[in-house]
Amino acid sequence: MKTIRHKFVEHIPEVIEEGILYISVEHYVAIHLCTCGCKNKVVTPISPTDWKLTYDGISVSIYPSIGNWNFNCKSHYWITNNKVEIVFEWSDKEIKLGRKKDKKEKKKYFKTSFWNKIFNLF
After folding, report:
1. Which residues contact 90 (CB under 8 A, 6 or more apart)?
2. What's the CA angle centered on 54, arms 64 and 28, to 5 degrees?
3. How far apart (Å, rounded) are the C-alpha atoms in residues 84 and 32?
4. Phi, psi for 59 (deg, rounded to 5)
5. pLDDT along the chain (122 residues), means of 10
6. Sheet containing 20-24: order of strands
7. pTM of structure
8. Long-range own/partner contacts, residues 61-69 (CB < 8 A, 24 or more apart)
9. What whole-number distance in Å separates Cα of residue 53 and Cα of residue 25?
């Protein structure tokens, strides 16, 4: 099983090193090079409707899984406690359904969010 180191940074560096997950708490984002080795930059926004990042003082985890559907490699993996677990490749149909589900969950979140309720009062 592959591992990935984490590095907390204020700003993402111009040169991204393989095997490092750069985390900018200030900008709510984590970036790393695809774990398949294709060298594509993988950007994971940290937010209630995107990815969640947990740090236990030693290691980091990102939830949900990372699916690089727009890359040629179409890699799909989990980062859990600084370990990279490669999972099966999704079919085009599964990717389409996953994207549809994500869109539906975001819409639901923003429809019921605190700020939406406040603004609807006026």
Report:
1. 67, 69, 74, 76, 98
2. 85
3. 12
4. -135, 170
5. 95 96 97 95 93 97 92 92 89 86 83 62 50
6. 5-8, 20-24, 29-33, 41-45
7. 0.84
8. 62/21, 62/30, 66/42, 67/95, 67/98, 68/34, 68/36, 68/40, 68/42, 69/95, 69/98, 69/99
9. 10
